[in-house]
Amino acid sequence: MNSESLYQFSTVTVLLMLLAFYGGTYLLTLGIRKKNEDADAFMVSNHRLGFGIGAASMTATWIWAASFYAAATSGFTYGVSGPIHYGLWGALMILFIYPFGRRFRKLAPNAATLGELIHARHGSSSQLILAASNVMGSIISLMVNFTAAGALVSVLSPLSFQTGVIIAGAGVLLYTLWSGFRASVMTDFAQLVALMAIAVVIIPAVFFSMGGPSELVAGLDNLTAEQANFFSMDAILNQGAPFFVAVLAYAIGNQTISQRLFAVNENHIKPTFVTATLGYGAIVIGLGMIGLMALTLGIEPLNGDMNNLIPQMVSGYLPPVFIGLFFILVIGSLSSTADSDLSALSAIMMADVYGKNIAKGKADPKRMLLVGRLTMIVATVVGIVFASFSLDILVMLVFVGALWGAIVFPVIASCFWNRVTNKAFTTSVVIAMIMFCLARFELLPLTGATGLMFELLASIGGGIIIALMAFGFLGRAMGLVAGVLAFVAMLVFATDFLRDYTVLLASLTAYGTSTLVCIVMSLASKEEPFDFDTIRERVGNYDDTDETASEKADDTPDSGVAGQPVGQS
Predict the structure, then answer these.
(1) Which run of H or of E encompasses 142?
(2) Farthest-apart Cα atoms in the chain, separation
(3) pTM, whole model, 2 decimals?
(4) Domain-located, residue 30
(5) Which residue ranges are recorded for the region named Disordered (predicted)?
(6) Is 363 found in the same domain as 403?
(7) Number of structural domains, the chain?
(8) Is 5 exposed, middle or buried (0-12, 13-18, 19+ CB in 10 A)?
């Protein structure tokens, strides 16, 4: 089935669906509005987010527009292992922040951002590096989601791409602006319930309309040997391994995840992250199976655009009512991530930029709220404008991914090792970014001694990733053993080979370089070891008056979205 066009709704129908979705979401947030909002609730729900809403919010946030299109593209490109590589490693990005997140919460229980913890540990320069990476990542995420909305509206209706972008941006801003993070997590819960209900219907409907399991098995003969191999080296090296490398980078560098870490009730951190991991993996792997099914049937993406694959399958095999459900499904997924990006950006500007660097720890909560809301408005406008330009998102994602990879070891080490210095943190990140660019864009020839140098750094990077993962769950000794074994294996595997896979080589180089520089400079430093107990004293809540605490207690809904007041440090 190769349709020359996709099914299109009328302009009125699409506008009514968008109005129903964003209007209903806005009405949902009216119930949690406060006449006098407070800064801590606006940023992290006063650290009292409940398990159910926390897990739902985490899952909905992580299932963004790219999850739909990229999962299907993975199945279509890499065959039987493609959906697993995309969904599994994406799910682990949520899981692997858990062990380190417990440490972050212990050190700074009243923080709103990871940057506040780093500011208390090192000072402004290291904090602003982390904040800048999060701002870039969230802006790009907004662009991606608004772009996806514009593309969806343009292919399923007579409306233009720009119209879809503007409606999505205005709709998300409308319901997020007043209550911030509280509105985001409340609507995430409703959006995830709708998303799961629709996905449970849509995915099997497409699957069986295309012929079901028997047709899938019969079509396996159309796959190449690599696509039919569950352990395809092509899939592992070009997708699985780069995604695996990104697991810790996104877990540590993404403020939307960190914000929920600091918001959820401390007793519920583990079940929240485990539940979100399972929920994300199940839904995204299911979406990837649609791409695999298209591959087995020999279907080609419309106009050669992989982003048309899922709309094409839904449009070609399902009746209009299911296409409408699919439309709401994608709009809901991209909106849940976009509102999380707005909340993350506002928290960064409120706490990291204004609270710690402009107000120097003497922030006015009312002014913080103004900063947060202005940030949301500006970010929405920037996201809409950049999305309208249809810029090359992948190029920018490369830099953000590299920056996040470069900060992983310095951030984690700073929270466990008292010898890490501010100079070691900042220098290691800068040098790692330079080395990443040299490798990724082949500014130096990846041959001879130069190629071996990058492969050595990449081997260190591979070893440190495995070491950190093992350390998080199994302790220091097992982490050290696993890291050494992984480093030796990488040396054998990578030498004179990894240079042919520049994306993977460059990403691992960023890890390895930042680790090596950070350790050497920290060991060479003459500074006194850091006292971790001082972090708790330096990071506190912003709304700490008795009057505010009383108001929080009075206004707290049973659902746990707003949260209850916490003790001050």
Answers:
(1) helix 124-156
(2) 70
(3) 0.87
(4) yes
(5) 541-569
(6) no
(7) 2
(8) exposed
